[in-house]
Amino acid sequence: MEELLPIKFFAKRKIDEMKVEGGGSDKLPKFVLSGNELTERATQLKLNLNGLEQNFKSKKERKSSIPMVVKVKMHRKALAKSHRQEISDFFKSTQDNIIGITNTNELLVKIQNDKELNTINKRLSNVISNKYAISCIEEMDNYTPEIILEEANNKTDYKIKLINFQDKNKNKAIEQQFETFIKTESLDYKKTIYSEDLTVFCLKNITKDAFTNIKEKNEDLYNSIFSISPMPQYHVSLDCIDESFEQAIITPEENKKYVTIGILDSGIKNIPHLSPWIMDSYSPYPENLIDKTHGTFVAGISLYGDLLESKKWVGNNNGFMLFDAAIVPGDHETIYEDDLISNIKEAIERNFDKVPIWNLSVSLNKTISEDTFSDFAVAIDELQKKYNILICKSAGNCKNFLSQQPTEKLVQGADSVRSLVVGSVAHAKSDYDISDLDNPSPFSRIGSGPSYIIKPDITHYGGNAGMDPSGALKVTGVKSFGIDGKIATSAGTSFSTPRITSLAAGIHQNLNETFDPLLLKALIVHSANYSKNIHMDTSEKLKYMGFGKPRNINEILFNTPYEATLILRDNLAKGEFIDIKDFPMPKELVNNGFYTGQITVTLVTDPVLDYSQNGEYCQSNLQVRLGTYSEKIKRDTTKRNIKNELGRTEAQNILLSNLYSKKIINNLTSEFANSERMLIQYGDKYHPIKKYSVDLSEMTEANKIHYLGQNKNWFLNIEGIYRNFIENKAEKESFELSQDFCLIITIKDPSKTTNVYDKVTQKLDEFNFTHNNIKLATDIDISI
User: Fold this and answer.
1) Could you tell me the CATH number of the domain that includes residue 160?
2) Which of 315, 369, 388, 763 yields a CA-CA distance of 20 to 30 A from 754?
3) pLDDT digits (tens, 9 = 90+) for 592-630
4) Pick from 652, 678, 682: which is nearest to 665 by CA?
5) Quick one: pLDDT at residue 666?
6) What is the pLDDT of residue 240?
7) Burial tier of 213 (Cβ tally within 10 Å: 0-12, 13-18, 19+)
8) How confident is the model over 37-53, as a mean pLDDT?
9) pLDDT at 427 over 60
10) pLDDT of residue 241
């Protein structure tokens, strides 16, 4: 057996800290208008403004304190951050007046007084000075609420969201006015705080005519509504099939400290296998209304998953305590979204200090949007940030395979940025099953998430399914427990998810480190890969399986001598970047004059989020570059825009796909090509997780000569960018922008001839990096 060596943390040095330097061009974009076209655009926008002025005059006559909101349609080429500042400045008075963005990429602008209207009018008259901004804007109009009503005029529970005016004081006042109004109208309602900036009203048991009445009685309050839609409902579902074998009961060891995982589900039955591990419980429902079938099955997999399957899929599982949070009433029951969020919040708020990792395997019946993150996702994202917890969320199930229809996209909640979202792959294949071993389960919903972020993040074994010749559903399930304590089988992403919850808890339990959800996410994603049984291109793999199925705990925490894994856990402030010019790439990996080896890079960030920006929910982004350069050079800091004394020449990022042989990349016969290779070009998309995996031997011969020569030095560069909205908000509210991140890099010698682990460690010492092995618990079992 190969020696197992712990992975390492390393820290940047003072000389690696850099200041962002100014730059850019004064040249205007090609879409900027001139001559008659510019004059016509300004004239059209003035006509738009005239209509807005009439509405504003009416608001003044009503003595309304609610600002007028205007939607601004942007030119399709003006959506980038570089153009957004021009639009922001155009509408700016004493402060930034852009307050949000719709799901159709229309900006929302608040206008509060005559002075602001007059300022816009003057800027439209001064055509030449404002031609850039005028060219970016195609149309202006009054904002009206986004409304989805039931076709029939039946009594329904409706979900109301108010406009976020980016002013806490004003938001609170308008919220109070709205609440007073609906009380006066004797409307039954419930108010739920989804997140710090998102309060939702549920108007209960009303017809759509009620909204006509609201508009007629208080037009200003009606126009402060952002959206109206039926309150979403959620459900859980489970089918169990009894098995005819038994599983030995495991019990907690005395005086041993266990991690506790929270099961946000339908409740856990006190069966003999689970009751010794249930440390506490919570539920808003009386016992007689709870059906614990689904929650018991989920809890059984989290605790006994490997034992029941006689596998080491998670590995080194010595048990966890369970917190039973029965947040839904049970099998096939429905629950409204606001009630579900209230239940989840209460369970977590009461217990976050003793429960750091939570499993959420509740399936939803509403598909995610292409360009807007769901309110459910926003709510669980904020809970994770506020309480420093990790939620593992199921991707959701789809039965379209029964009618041979395409698989549907993820369910709402699976678009959560901070959660680990989990799909399902097949653990076995029976006679009628559709999926081959290790391939996506036929019921597992697919990504990507809104704004093209990669979701699901990862996958694990959740079962298989198909149809017999008569068209009847056939399921090859994974094993757990029924509420009678007997072994049962079932399939679904609900049951792949607790394996990831168990994996995260197992990693944390085997470490002697402070709980760090970002580190756990990064370690899990970094270890993930694809089976050799999968024959899809990278884009399809990402859509169905995210970054793949993670390895087990010991494979994550330990290296062999032929590889070295380095972790950089840090925070990067706006205006700074990291540029390590002495990256510890071992010279011993040079073969025939060129560097060789396989390199995997995973960057997981905790981005700045703002729900009011819809598709631009992620307001910050980090970019990572790893590569080679020829030599360090001194730079003249007396020159304009040069702030950093040391630079590098002939630098090349080796994580770019265009450097590698297309012929080799298209050949998927090698193990690395099928399982590991990851050459995604993320472009200007704000992805909170990025992963690259390259084999230097696959680079074209010409590029090897240019970039992999034995005399080359290696660098690592990390830079942050922020959207215009959050930059302006930070300036207005006087807070500093920064991003927490966890970067993991593994360097591997596939030929197993070089002791990479020792050589990287020596390089870290040579270049004066602070580094240490990851701290392990004293009782860890390191057998694989």
Assistant:
1) 3.30.70
2) 315
3) 999 999 999 999 999 999 999 999 999 999 999 999 999
4) 678
5) 76
6) 45
7) middle
8) 94
9) yes
10) 43
Cα first-last separation, the chain: 9
Say yes or no to pLDDT of 244 above 60: no
DSSP state, residue 444: B
C-alpha pair distances (Å), 753 with each of 175, 589, 594 = 67, 9, 16
In a domain? residue 777 = no
Any bridge partners for residue 158, and if so which? Answer: 203, 230
Provide the percentage of residues in the chain whose pLDDT is more than 70: 96
Q: Are 294 and 265 in contact (CB under 8 A)?
A: yes
Query: In 10 A of CB 470, how many CB atoms?
Result: 5
C-alpha R_g of the chain: 28
Whether residue 667 sits in one domain with residue 590 = yes
**Which tokens hold the place of 267?**
């409740």
Domain containing residue 663: 560-770
| AA identity, residue 218 | N
Place of tokens 């969320």: 393
Is the pLDDT at 285 greater than 60? The verdict is yes
Longest Cα separation, the chain: 83
Of residues 419, 366, 398, the one with CA closest to residue 234? 366
For residue 119, report the phi and psi dihedrals to the nearest 5 degrees.
-65, -45
Whether pTM > 0.85 for this model: the answer is yes
Do 751 and 633 share a domain, yes or no?
Answer: yes
If one counts the domains in the chain, the total is 4
Compute the average pLDDT of residues 473-481: 94
Would the CA dihedral through 53, 58, 59, 61 be positive or negative? positive
The answer to whether 92 touches 725, Cβ cutoff 8 Å, is no
Mean pLDDT of the chain: 92
Q: Please give the Cα distance from 511 to 638 (Å, whole number).
A: 48
Give the span between the Cα atoms of 381 and 394, in whole angstroms. Answer: 15
The C-alpha atoms of residue 588 and residue 509 are separated, in whole angstroms, by 36
pLDDT in tens, 177-230: 999 999 999 999 999 999 999 999 999 999 988 898 899 999 989 999 999 999
Picking from 304, 247, 297, 317, the residue whose alpha carbon sits closest to that of residue 477 is 297
Element (H, E) at 745: strand 738-748
How would you write 137-182 as a 3-class SS string?
Answer: EEEEEECCCEECCCCCCCCEEEEEEECCCCCHHHHHHHHHHHHHHH
User: Residues 384-414: pLDDT tens digits?
Assistant: 999 999 999 999 999 999 999 999 999 999 9
DSSP 619: -
Chain Cα centroid distance, residue 122: 42
Whether residue 350 sits in one domain with residue 489: yes
Give the closest residue to 625 by CA, choosing from 594, 648, 644, 595. Answer: 648
Residue 645 has pLDDT above 70, yes or no: yes
Distance of CA 378 to the CA centre of its chain: 10
As given in the structure block, the two tokens for residue 216 are: 């007629």
Say yes or no: 619 and 537 in one domain. Answer: no
* Pairwise CA distance, residues 738 & 761, whole Å: 30
pLDDT higher at 277 or 243? 277
